[in-house]
Design brief:
With 496 residues, this protein is mainly β. The chain has one helix and 34 strands.
């Protein structure tokens, strides 16, 4: 990091300005307060005043001192740890960050561009093999677009990704190391990532390329000079963005109010998604006891629940008491941590337009029964349904697309249970990973029938793991039907 770094700047949002007004305010204030910074800069962060504005998913992240303030991920055993910032609408841009792996091993640490979800992104990473790899990542599928050897991979290096149109190019310390054509979404946020590694990050900056439509929506005030250690490239001062909120057409109270709407019990999956009858921002988790019929209104996170990150610690939009029923509800973006069931619960015709960390989490006791009947989910980068408690979950007449896993029995919860899942009449489109995952050593079972997989000729339908209660990553031990744990026949699965 440079010995003569630009001034530290604290972020504040520009209120009451459209895109053009915000851009003008940024240009004027940057010119007056920090002449050395580029007016075109979309985002800057040197972490001298913390890490507000970053959303976390996995790992242990904290601002620490390493010559100057840096953002460090310290949990080297995390399979995938990442933080995100910026706007989902950013298109053609260059993102740069200084990266120093602390413990690399066989893992990786790097920077991400066009992150459209927690595990869908382009990333340029330093690897334990002594390389820098430019990768296209979609769930568990990783495509290497190019690589080059890097000397001293555990020292500070400046990594940069330029994303312009379908072309993605990676640079290390100003030298181009890889380039390729990508097929991922053409828009998305920036990120800092590790996998089975710990690392420090500093001096993150984002600048537009070519015809980028990205617009800065925040600016900064002057503050003391940052002191830093030596590094090849200086970065401009930091500027943050403000995420736009969806239009509010109604409000949601933290207490559920039942609505009388007749709802036929679903009997088959449908490709049609319901049209929202209205929008209801949710600023605090809605507690549901009894029955809440949303009448196909769209509920979305706002205020404290308004982040669009994938953080495991997020609160849900709905928290269902034992025996509660939630039906005819659309969860829009941001969906926070979706739905939590404290005990037995029933979800009827519940739709997730863009899954946050999980669509629903089931936390009841050993005798709890949960039912998901009808509805659907899109855009789950990892799990759709997370089973942390005990009991049996039935998922039927459901459709899911663009997802990592439909169901996962918690592999490393501090309290473990024997769990069962029944999956019936489900259409799964474009899965990135597997359908269900269970823990064989705890006696879990998965019973599946009438499953249709669209867009793939093969898929791990039922994956068996050795789970644990220590927090470590569970070990995969097998896949496929066995009549005891994974209960289905090949004829129960149709590939289209």
């Amino acid at each position: 990091m440079p010995s003569a770094a630009p001034s530290r700047r604290r972020r504040r949002l520009v209120a009451g300005l459209g895109a053009a007004g915000a851009a003008g305010a940024v240009t004027a204030l940057v010119a007056i307060l920090v002449p050395s910074a580029s007016a075109a800069t979309l985002f800057d962060d040197d972490f001298e005043d913390g890490a507000s504005g970053w959303s976390k998913s996995g790992g242990n992240w904290a601002v620490v001192s390493d010559g100057s303030k840096v953002y460090q991920q310290s949990k080297a055993e995390s399979e995938l740890a990442r933080v995100f910032a910026g706007e989902t609408s950013w298109t053609d841009y260059s993102v740069q960050a200084k990266v120093k792996p602390v413990s690399l091993g066989t893992g990786l640490a790097g920077v991400a561009a066009r992150a459209s979800g927690s595990s869908t992104m382009y990333r340029l990473a330093l690897t334990g093999a002594g390389k820098a790899e430019l990768q296209a990542v979609k769930g568990s599928a990783v495509t290497v677009l190019g690589s080059a050897a890097v000397s001293n991979p555990t020292s500070w290096h400046t990594l940069r990704i330029d994303a312009s149109g379908s072309t993605v190019t990676g640079f290390v310390d100003g030298t181009r190391v890889a380039s390729g054509n990508g097929t991922l979404a053409g828009t998305g946020r920036i990120g800092l990532v590790t996998s089975y590694a710990s690392a420090s990050f500093d001096d993150v900056s984002v600048n537009p390329l070519g015809g980028s439509t990205a617009t800065p929506t925040a600016t900064a005030t002057a503050s003391p000079t940052k002191t830093a250690t030596a590094s090849p490239t200086a970065s401009p001062s930091k500027t943050a963005t403000a995420s736009p909120s969806p239009t509010k057409t109604a409000t949601a109270s933290p207490t559920a109010t039942p609505t009388a709407t007749a709802t036929p019990t679903p009997t088959a999956t449908s490709t049609a998604w319901p049209a929202a009858t209205g929008s209801k921002p949710v600023t605090a988790t809605i507690a549901v006891s009894g029955t809440l019929d949303g009448g196909n209104a769209r509920y979305f996170g706002s205020g404290a629940l308004g982040g669009d990150g994938q953080d495991e610690g997020q609160d849900p939009l709905f928290k269902l008491a034992d025996g509660a029923v939630l039906k005819n509800v659309i969860l829009g973006a941001p969906a926070a941590d979706g739905v939590h069931c404290s005990g037995s619960c029933t979800l009827i015709n519940v739709w997730w337009e863009n899954v946050g960390e999980d669509a629903a989490t089931f936390k009841g006791g050993t005798s709890a029964t949960y039912t998901v009947d009808g509805g659907g989910a899109k855009g789950a980068d990892d799990k759709v349904f997370q089973h942390n408690g005990g009991g049996t979950l039935t998922i039927k007449n459901f459709q899911v697309s663009d997802f990592g896993k439909l169901y996962r029995s918690c592999g490393n919860c501090s309290t473990q249970h024997q769990r069962a899942v029944v999956v019936q009449n489900v259409v799964a489109t474009a899965p990135a990973g597997s359908l269900v995952g269970i823990n064989q050593n705890y006696g879990d079972t998965a019973t599946l029938s009438k499953i249709t997989v669209v867009g793939k000729k093969s898929l791990d339908i039922c994956v068996k793991f050795t789970g644990n209660d220590s927090g470590k990553e569970p070990t995969k031990i097998g896949t496929g039907p066995d009549g005891t744990y994974c209960k289905y026949a090949e004829s129960d699965i149709t590939f289209k």
